Structures are given as structure tokens and as C-alpha cells.
Amino acid sequence: MEHFDVAIIGLGPAGSALARKLAGKMQVIALDKKHQHGTEGFSKPCGGLLAPDAQRSFIRDGLTLPVDVIANPQIFSVKTVDVAASLTRNYQRSYININRHAFDLWMKSLIPASVEVYHDSLCRKIWREDDKWHVIFRADGWEQHITARYLVGADGANSMVRRHLYPDHQIRKYVAIQQWFAEKHPVPFYSCIFDNAITDCYSWSISKDGYFIFGGAYPMKDGQTRFTALKEKMSAFQFQFGKAVKAKNARCCFPHAGRILSAARTTPF
């Protein structure tokens, strides 16, 4: 049974960045559901905007984005819609429009070879015994068992690591729903939509590579119904939809105020 200093579960941007930083300093193993290349297999449902804080982290690390992760167009404001008040305002924002899946794979490609990375893998069981973390995972067609001194959970909103560490800690959960439509708007835009009658979270839209992406976070019980109702309301704000060409759902968490530690945007506890 092989032993590591650190086992990282999940290689989204947070997990990949940590693996890159620890390379050469500790013996690291990293497990990820995504394939190493291509569009097959798991991909993260995400609008794909790189915020200024993330951009600054790349500046600190001396990294530049390759052109194949950047989407078209680049937009420098967000249309903010208050549905109940029928108000719309535009606010300047410096987001970079990216292809999220291509971005994730690029981040993984930056991990040095000294890190043992398993792509297209599935973590099946974790437990602590004899002052070590034990991890059973499936990769390359067979199950493997390793141990580690430290275990890092960067495995998303439905984190196995968090559920193991805090089995009784409940976090408010929402379903994030996104649909892709052929872009019909004469001027592409980003938007952020607030409508408390639909959700106490928010909804959004993003123009990207010829598509209009519309999504939001809604209560788990009737999320699809609320999503459809909001789409109908948005015609009053000149949103154009048509027939959806793709749709994805994902679980997201809405933590309460208090002491919160997060390894990634969707993994607070």
C-alpha cells in the first residue's frame, strides 16, 4: 500500500492550484473525475467567468491564459435586473469570458509530473485509521488503496470529504440549472437577475461562443418549475431564448454566516 504526504480529491481550479504549489515539496497524489483531454466524461456545469481576484492570482504566479481557453466575446459590464421593481442597470465588471472545461483541463496540465495524478477516477471510500487517511479509489479499471498524512477535499458541492468530516452538519442546498440557446441578441451581454419570488439566491446569463447561457440557483424541491417561470418573466426584459440546445443541472451550497472554510467556490463548510 503506497503512502503519500497529501491526497487531493478533485482537480478543479482549487485542487489543481494546490497540487501545483505542493509539487516538489511533498509527495502528492491527486484524483479527478475529468478526463485528461477532450470533452468526454465529466465536465463542470459553469457559466465560465474569471473574476478579478482569480486574475490577480495568475499575476502572482506568473501565468498567462492560453487562447484556447478564452471564449468570445469579452464583455466589460454586467446587466443587473431587479425583476420585482422592473429595473435594469449596467455595472462595469472586469470578468474574462472562458470555456470552463478547457480552463479546468489547462489547470490540470500545469501540475508537475512529480504529482501522481489519476484522471477519470472515482473516490469510493475514505476513513481515518492509525493516524493516517485511507483512500480507496477506482482508476485504470481497478480499485486501489492508498494512505496519506493529509486529505484535501476539493471535490465540489457534494463533497465526500466534507460529508465524512461533518456528517451531522447540514448546509442549505440548491439546484443550479443552466440551459444553452443559440444567441439571438444583437448585442451580447452578461446579466445578474434577482427575483425573490423565484429564489432567494440569484440567476444569470452569459453570452459565449455563439450561445446564450441562462441559469440560476433554485430550491431543490421545485427548481425546474421556478427556472421555467423566470424564463417566462424575462421576456419583459428583452431576453430571447428559443429552443434549448443543451442543459445541465448541479447541486450547489448556500452556507450560513459564521466561520466558513472553502477549498473551492462550491465546497464551503
UniProtKB/TrEMBL annotation:
It comes from the Bacteria. Residues 135-169 form the FAD-binding domain. GO terms for molecular function: FAD binding. Pfam families: FAD_binding_3 (PF01494). Belongs to the CbrA family. This is Protein CbrA. It comes from Escherichia coli.
